[in-house]
Write a structure and sequence with these properties.
Blueprint (H helix, E strand, L loop, with lengths): L5 E7 L3 H12 L8 E7 L6 H4 L1 H5 L4 E4 L5 H10 L5 E4 L5 E2 L3 H11 L3 E5 L2 E5 L4 E4 L10 E3 H10 L11 E3 H4 L12 H9 L4 E4 L5 E5 L7 H28 L4 H21 L5 H15 L3 H6 L9 H16 L1
Parallel strand pairs: 1-2, 1-4, 2-3, 6-11, 7-12
Antiparallel strand pairs: 4-10, 5-12, 6-10, 7-8, 9-11
Helix pairs in contact: 6-10, 9-10, 10-11
Length: about 325
């Protein structure tokens, strides 16, 4: 097997605590070090990330670029454009690779020129509870070459998504053609997947080769948590709309667009529920859009729990109180 140059992109924002472990996990790969370039794009960190990386920058172990805070999508796109490798690997700054990941991924790519995307299940590490579990991916997806468009249909029809984030890699010749709108922001992981799959085939290795870290380091008191939830929901709504616009502008299959419209509407209703502002007018509008305009059919109604959003806030509140009471007893 040949060992082509590969690129690892690490977009980061205020992850000084984790990024060194992420970088070291790449430097300690079984794949030849001289065939790996690491591109770090810092999206305006204020926690001294640049200082902790000075040694890596000086030793030319990484390429480090700082930009004003524009969001993860912008940082990811800028990193991709700086890549010289044949294959591009994504690595979130708070995650890390297992030692043989790059070697195993490259082997799959090199065996089939039609493959544009390679992924694998994640090993999920819950930091606060200090335990791990493996991401469960349907067996019929694992260990075989899959048509990218078929896979998209499977994902959205069954309300599931695998192969993004730190588990994601793509053939650079296709990925670098994709203009990533900065507006997709918080949905960049999903966007990268749905944007690359129509270009060819995908392959999912059947065992974990990356570690996703689940942590709560950005939250302290309940009021801050609530405000962060609201702010994040606002960003998510804008990001969701941007992804939907991309699908429409690039003539994706109508069934994919239909399902994404459903997701977009659901996200808006969840936002209204978070604000405690969902009213009957919202419910009527939601019902009109879902049942008379989109007409999803019974399978999608069940897969996306569409009937749940018809429940008034007063009823939702009682349900939550009853669940809490049951839990306490």
């Amino acid at each position: 097997m040949s060992n082509p140059l590969i690129s690892v992109v690490i977009p980061t924002y205020n992850y000084k605590k984790y990024i060194v472990e992420a970088i070291n996990s790449v430097l300690n790969q079984t794949y030849p070090k001289e065939k790996i370039e690491i591109i770090v794009v810092d999206d305006g960190s204020t926690d001294g990330t640049n200082l902790i990386l000075n040694e890596y920058i000086a030793d030319k172990k990484i390429q480090y670029y700082f930009q004003e805070n524009k969001g993860k999508a912008s940082a990811t796109y800028n990193a991709i454009q700086k890549c010289n490798g044949k294959y591009i690997f994504n690595l979130d700054a708070d995650d890390y690779f297992l030692p043989s990941k790059i070697e195993e991924y490259v082997k799959i790519f090199e065996e089939n020129d039609e493959i544009v995307h390679v992924a694998a299940p994640a090993r999920i590490f819950f930091e606060e509870k200090n335990f791990t579990k493996n991401e469960i991916i349907p067996e019929d997806i694992l260990g075989k070459v899959l048509n990218g468009n078929w896979l998209l249909q499977r994902f959205y029809n069954d309300n599931m998504l695998f192969g993004g984030g730190t588990t994601y890699s793509a053939r650079a010749s296709f990925l670098k053609k994709i203009k990533i709108p900065a507006e997709v922001d918080m949905y960049i992981d999903e966007f990268l997947l749905l944007a690359i799959l129509p270009f060819g085939k995908s392959f999912y290795i059947d065992h974990p080769l990356s570690v996703w870290r689940i942590h709560k380091s950005n939250f302290s008191i309940s009021r801050v948590v609530k405000q962060n939830q609201i702010n994040n929901k606002q960003r998510l709504l804008k990001s969701s709309s941007a992804v939907l616009h991309y699908l429409q502008e690039n003539n994706y299959d109508k069934s994919i667009i239909k399902i994404y419209r459903i997701q977009d509407i659901i996200r808006y209703m969840l936002y209204k529920e978070l604000l405690n502002e969902k009213n009957m007018s919202d419910i009527v509008k939601y019902a009109s859009n879902i049942f008379f305009k989109i007409k999803p059919g019974w399978k999608l109604l069940k897969k996306y729990n569409l009937l749940n959003r018809l429940v008034p806030l007063s009823v939702l509140s009682r349900i939550k109180k009853n669940k809490l009471a049951d839990y306490e007893t």
